[in-house]
């Protein structure tokens, strides 16, 4: 049985495991909205069976584009030190762990599930170039498996837990991460696909493993966290509108199927009645069946045929567009994600529609940048490198979608007033490594030009001497 003394690894296992279990329902709800598996629009009880198929088809998923829109604008280019120089170690760790592509997976999870995590540990086979410490292993983690608790006094990470079901060994595994080490656990139990969190359920799997990373090696990435509030997914504020859109689509589909075509009626006709032999009930015979070749006639003296007006669906469409527009406005998603009547819009209009969205992306960059700095600090400690990444800067790609000619024109004007080449290259969206290469090659070209070994930029090559061998 586990020890429940506060702040021991056993205590953290049970505490964080129960917290992870309790938030699973909310994570499942957010993930269902992100995937488009929204709750079916409600209907009167007597019509539920008839409209079940309509309910499934009426779901139109706008939560996913709302969540994905910021991900399209988030791309780390590199890391620089306090003086703006490219960090080769950070680049090596970044590339070795394939974070150019995996960072997008992390951001998408954060937008859809409100949080994601990165764990730093020793790589099982790869070592640093000097042949000393193991290289850092950086893994992106899902909140279904990982949870972190912070110290309420300092805000620093106090402990973290990763728990999962090992399909190979058919056991549950868990690891508790503390600032000075980690403890592994194992359990053979699982009920209904959920790991148990009782004192008698888990057993330590080996001894406590110390590390000298100086912090809990699990870094959270949160979706625009607020003070005293738990993070929420990107679309949390528009879930009611998403449900309203689904209900509006259901109403439009119902009207289109049952009321869009003109319904016929007849008055003054005497219908024949007969008894149904199977049920014994009296039923009315229907002689008027719609058909291109049918002619309807009645022997009634005052019989009159007619038809009702079809339902106008334009109101449903306007309501749908209004709901979608509200959803995009409240979530700060550019309106051109739902083009509607936006046709042949200018670049200035696109920039105007992007203002709030870019501000939101800037918040994500600031928050995620701090988290990446924590990750790199842990990598440095794992690699045995004494470096303070709190003064470093994570370089992001410009989230604006600017015309290359506009960028080049701005760089030319800045150069005319004395901007250094390195700053111009940064402003043009080059990575720190490309900036270093550009400035290095420019300096080399200038040196060769000054020594006369190569013509300077902008000078025409000397004309070749005429060939007089044939004279």
Label this structure with key terms.
471 residues; alpha+beta; 6-stranded antiparallel beta sheet; 3-stranded antiparallel beta sheet; 13 helices; disordered C terminus
Give a description of the structure.
The protein is of the alpha+beta class and 471 residues long. The chain is built from 13 helices and 15 strands. Strands 4, 5, 6, 7, 8 and 9 form a six-stranded antiparallel beta sheet that branches. A three-stranded antiparallel beta sheet has the order 3-2-10, covered by helices on one side. Helix 4 packs antiparallel against helix 6. The longest helix is centred in the C-terminal third of the chain and has 29 residues. The C terminus is likely disordered.
Helix content: 25-40%
Mean pLDDT: 85
Largest sheet: 6 strands, antiparallel
Total number of β-strand segments? Answer: 15
Unreliable stretches (pLDDT < 50, length at least 5) are 460-471
Quick one: overall form?
flat
Cα end-to-end separation: 106 Å
Strand/helix succession: HHHHEHHEEEEEEEEEHEEEEHHHEHHH
Strand content: 15-25%
Q: What's the alpha carbon Rg, rounded to whole Å?
A: 33 Å
How many helical elements? 13
Class inferred from helices and paired strands:
alpha+beta
Please summarize what this structure is.
This protein has helices spanning 9-22, 24-35, 52-57, 63-72, 88-96, 99-113, 239-258, 314-330, 347-353, 355-383, 404-416, 421-427, 432-450, and strands spanning 76-80, 115-127, 134-141, 146-150, 157-166, 171-178, 181-187, 203-204, 209-210, 218-222, 264-267, 273-275, 282-284, 304-307, 393-396. It is of the alpha+beta class and 471 residues long.
């Amino acid at each position: 049985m586990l020890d429940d003394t506060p702040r021991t690894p056993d205590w953290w296992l049970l505490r964080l495991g129960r917290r992870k279990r309790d938030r699973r329902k909310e994570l499942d709800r957010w993930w269902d909205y992100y995937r488009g598996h929204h709750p079916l629009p409600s209907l009167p009880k007597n019509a539920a069976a008839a409209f079940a198929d309509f309910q499934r088809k009426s779901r139109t998923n706008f939560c996913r584009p709302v969540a994905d829109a910021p991900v399209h604008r988030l791309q780390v280019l590199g890391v620089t030190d306090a003086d703006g120089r490219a960090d080769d170690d950070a680049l090596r760790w970044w590339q070795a762990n394939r974070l150019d592509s995996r960072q997008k997976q992390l951001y998408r999870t954060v937008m859809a599930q409100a949080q994601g995590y990165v764990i730093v540990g020793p790589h099982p086979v790869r070592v640093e170039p000097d042949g000393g410490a193991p290289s850092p292993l950086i893994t992106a983690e899902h909140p279904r498996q990982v949870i972190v608790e912070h110290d309420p006094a300092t805000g620093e990470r106090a402990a973290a837990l990763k728990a999962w079901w090992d399909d190979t060994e058919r056991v549950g595994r868990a690891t508790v991460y503390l600032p000075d080490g980690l403890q592994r656990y194992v359990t053979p139990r699982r009920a209904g696909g959920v790991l148990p969190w009782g004192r008698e359920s888990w057993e330590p799997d080996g001894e406590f493993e110390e590390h000298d990373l100086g912090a809990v090696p699990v870094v959270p990435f949160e979706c625009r966290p607020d003070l005293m509030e738990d993070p929420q997914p990107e679309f949390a504020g528009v879930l009611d509108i998403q449900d309203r859109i689904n209900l509006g689509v259901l109403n439009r589909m119902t009207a289109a199927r049952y009321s869009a075509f003109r319904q016929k009626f007849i008055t003054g006709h005497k219908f024949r009645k007969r008894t149904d032999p199977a049920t014994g009930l009296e039923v009315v015979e229907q002689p008027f069946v719609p058909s291109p070749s049918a002619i309807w006639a009645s022997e009634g003296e005052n019989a009159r045929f007619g038809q009702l007006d079809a339902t106008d669906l334009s109101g449903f469409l306007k309501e749908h567009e209004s709901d979608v527009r509200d959803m995009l406005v409240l979530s700060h998603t550019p309106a051109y994600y739902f083009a509607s009547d936006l046709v042949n819009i200018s670049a200035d209009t696109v920039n105007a529609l992007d203002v709030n969205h870019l501000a939101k992306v800037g918040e994500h960059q600031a928050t995620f940048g701090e988290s990446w700095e924590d990750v790199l600090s842990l990598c440095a400690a794992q690699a045995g490198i004494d470096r303070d990444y709190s003064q470093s800067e994570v370089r992001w790609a410009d989230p604006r979608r600017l015309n290359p000619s506009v960028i080049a024109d701005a760089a030319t004007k800045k150069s005319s007033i004395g901007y250094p080449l390195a700053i111009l290259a940064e402003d043009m969206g080059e990575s720190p490594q490309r900036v270093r290469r550009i400035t290095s090659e420019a300096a080399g070209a200038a040196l060769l030009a000054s020594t006369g070994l190569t013509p300077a930029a902008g000078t025409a090559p000397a004309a070749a001497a005429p060939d007089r061998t044939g004279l």
